[in-house]
Structure formats: C-alpha cells, structure tokens
UniProtKB/TrEMBL annotation, chain A:
PANTHER family according to UniProt: IMMEDIATE EARLY RESPONSE 3-INTERACTING PROTEIN 1
Protein name per UniProt: Immediate early response 3-interacting protein 1
Keyword Transcription among UniProt keywords: no
GO biological process: endoplasmic reticulum to Golgi vesicle-mediated transport; protein transport
TrEMBL record, chain B:
Primary gene name: yif1a
Pfam families per the UniProt record, alphabetical: YIF1
Membrane topology designation: Multi-pass membrane protein
Name this polypeptide is given: Protein YIF1
Coiled-coil features, chain-numbered ranges: none
GO cellular component: COPII-coated ER to Golgi transport vesicle; endoplasmic reticulum membrane; endoplasmic reticulum-Golgi intermediate compartment; Golgi membrane
GO terms (BP aspect): endoplasmic reticulum to Golgi vesicle-mediated transport; protein transport
Organism expressing this protein natively: Sander lucioperca (Pike-perch)
Keywords, alphabetical: Endoplasmic reticulum, Golgi apparatus, Membrane, Protein transport, Transmembrane, Transmembrane helix, Transport
InterPro entries recorded: Yif1_fam (IPR005578)
Location in or out of the cell: Endoplasmic reticulum membrane; Golgi apparatus membrane
Family membership noted in the UniProt record: Belongs to the YIF1 family.
Keyword DNA-binding: no
Location of region: Disordered: 1-24
Physiological role: Has a role in transport between endoplasmic reticulum and Golgi.
Length: 89, 307
C-alpha cells in the first residue's frame, strides 16, 4: 500500500485501542499500595471545600472516579479483546 | 430521517422571516408544518404534527393503485417506518440532547458568509462577545459570534474530497487512502477536543464551553486547511507556504479572541479572585496552546497532499 506519506495515519481502531490501554493504565493504580507512597492517597485528595480544588485534587478525583465507574465495563471489554485477539491474531 | 432536512431546506428562503416570538427564540420556523413552539417541546410535537400528514400523504398516493391489498400494505409499512423512527429518536435523545444539536445547525446564508470572512480575515472584526437572550445564547442566525457546527461539518467533508482530488492529481489515489485520511482527521479532532476538555476540567475553569462548542471551535481549522490546500494545488509549493502562513495567523487570532471571552473570566469587582494566583496564567496558557496547536495540525494534515 502506498501509504508512506501518511506517517502517522490513524484509524478509528487505533483510537479504540488507545482508549482501552489508557483506561487500563488508570485502573491499575492502586490507592493503598501505590498512590499513598507519593502522597496521592485517599486522605490527601479531599482538600478545601470553600474555594476551587487545586490540580492535584482534581487529578485524584478523576483517577478515583475512573476507577469506580470503569471497573466493570473494563472487565467486559478486556475479556472481549482477549478472545478476539486469540481468535484473529 | 428526511423530515428535519425538508424543514431545514425550507428555512433557507425564509431566512429573513419575521423576528422570533418572545418564548421561542431558537426554533420558530424549522418545521414546515409546525407553528412557533418553545424549545423544550420542539422536537416531539413538531414531529407528531408532521407524522400524520406524512401518513396522509402516503395514503393519498396509493389510491392510484388498483389493488386494495397494495394500499393496505403501503399504509402498514409507512406506519411501521414511523414507529421505527420514533424508537430511534427516543434512543438517540438519551445520549445527546437533540435540541442542543439543533441550536448549532440553525444557520443561514448571511451568517455563513460573514463567518467565513471572519475566519479568513479576523483583524477588522470589532465585537467578539456572544450575545444572550434571557440566559440562553442566541442562535447563529442572530449572532455572528456564536459557534456553529454547520461550517465545521461541511469544511471537514470538503477537506476529505479535496484530499482525494489532490492525491488523484499526484496519481496516488485509492479508496482506502480516502478513508484513512478521513479517519485520521477525525481522530485528530477527537484528540484535540479530549485534551481541551481534560485541561479545562483539571484547572477547574468554570466556563460555559460545552463539548459541542469545543468541537465547533476545533472544526473551524478545516476552513483554513481547505484554503491552504487549494492555494498549494493552484500555485505550487510557494503558494502553499504563503497560504499556510496566512491562514495560520488568521486562525490563531480568531481562536485567541474567541476563547478569551469564554475561558479567561472577566473579573467582576465584587467577586475576589478565587483559588491560587496561578489561575489566570494557566487559562492564558490553555488559550495560547490551543492557538499554537492549530498551525501545527494544519501543516501535519496537508503537507503530504501538496508536493
């Protein structure tokens, strides 16, 4: 295929792959064993209620909410990916 | 779904109709059968009112059929199709509000021409404020500064066609390449919108930029891309670089001026600056980063088309 000029051509499938990999990466960040060592644990996130939370609190909230929401769908999607990759290479 | 399209085509000759009534600013004449309604009850009553007329139209036609069975079958089939349409509408309106989407497509010819001129030459445009009407933003028909999704969609499709044409001129065309070009451009739009959303969320910028607004603003770069590719095809490599510089500067100016109104808050005198003092800096960084990203992506997506 003469696609040497498209040196970073994306397909929608690669976008789906990226999304799955990134969500998996966020989902494996365990709070007690890993994040607490950096001072990013459960107790460090909830900060000031009066003013806007800072960047670190926002990131921690995002990580925690992604882990809570995407846990079950990720199990399903990962299982489907494993089966499909085993069957079709 | 051809009903909204019929209504949409019918609006174009009536673009300069009477001014909107008091409670239905957005959707007064986009349905050929429905009178002016308020925006909440727009979609379903408008559709229901036009539904029976569709049925009646379908019923009047097959009277020409001699076979009564064919008449009955046609009416049954049309009622089934209407039921299917209702179900599809209900499912779609669970994911995204169709009313909000209709706001972005409520454009007319005058708006499109003015907006294209502003995109290509924004230096003389004075007033960049988005005007409001009792808390709801005005439609693009009434306010030139309002973002719309019509221009980005059309520009995206035109860009794909132009890319196919450019590749065909260089004898590098094949149908897979066209699909690849389309999905690459789409993926870049999605990446840019996601990065913008993430940065706006992380820095707790309380702006009223919705997802569709961001899609609109990041789709305006396709107009610049079309202009650049056309100049590159017509005038060769020099024309390409000149057009690239021109449309980059125009687009950067446009993005900075438009987003400045929305992201960088007008610090009202009674509310103190909340949060850390680094906030206004970060908002400025976001705006500038978005602006700088546009020429990069224009160059990235068009340089292989013009050799």
């Amino acid at each position: 295929m003469e696609l040497k000029s498209f040196y970073m051509a994306f397909t929608l499938y690669s976008l789906i792959q990226t999304a799955i990999l990134c969500t998996n990466a966020i989902a494996v960040l365990h709070e007690e064993r890993f994040l607490s060592k950096f001072g990013w644990g459960v107790d460090h996130g909830v900060g000031g209620f009066g003013d806007d939370p800072g960047i670190k609190a926002q990131i921690l909230t995002l990580i925690r909410s992604v882990r809570t929401v995407m846990r079950v769908p990720l199990i399903i999607v990962n299982s489907a990916c494993i089966v499909l990759l085993l069957l079709f290479g | 779904m051809d009903l909204p399209h019929q209504g949409y085509r019918a609006t174009k000759p009536r673009a300069r109709a009477a001014p909107p009534t008091a409670d239905s600013v957005l959707f007064d004449d986009t349905s050929s059968a429905a009178p002016a309604m308020n925006s909440q009850g727009y979609y379903t009553p408008g559709y229901n009112m036009a539904g029976p007329s569709n049925n009646m139209q379908g019923g009047a036609g097959p009277d020409l059929f001699a076979d009564p069975m064919a008449n009955a079958a046609m009416m049954y089939g049309s009622s089934l199709a209407n039921q299917g349409k209702d179900m599809v509408n209900k499912e779609i309106s669970r994911f995204m509000s169709v009313n909000k989407l209709k706001y972005f497509f409520a454009v007319d010819t005058r708006y499109v021409l003015k907006k294209l001129m502003i995109l290509m030459f924004p230096y003389t445009h004075q007033d960049w404020e988005v005007r409001y009407h009792r808390d709801t933003p005005l439609t693009p028909r009434q306010d030139v500064n309002a973002p719309d999704l019509y221009i980005p969609t059309m520009a995206f499709i035109t860009y794909i066609l132009l890319a196919g044409m450019a590749l065909g001129i260089q004898k590098r065309f094949s149908p897979e390449v066209l699909g690849l070009c389309a999905s690459t451009a789409l993926v870049w739009v999605i990446i840019e919108v996601l990065v913008m959303l993430l940065s706006l969320y992380l820095l707790t910028v309380h702006s009223d930029l919705s997802t569709f607004d961001l899609i609109a603003y990041s789709g305006y770069k396709y107009v610049g891309m079309i202009f650049t590719v056309l100049c590159g095809l017509l005038f060769g490599s020099d024309g390409y670089y000149v057009a690239l510089a021109w449309s980059s500067c125009a687009l950067m100016f446009f993005i900075v001026r438009s987003l400045k109104m929305k992201i960088l808050p007008s610090l009202s005198p009674d509310s103190m600056v909340t949060g850390s003092s680094a906030k206004p800096q970060f908002r400025l960084y976001i705006t500038v980063a978005t602006a700088v990203f546009q020429p990069i992506i224009i160059y990235w997506l068009t340089s292989h088309l013009v050799r």
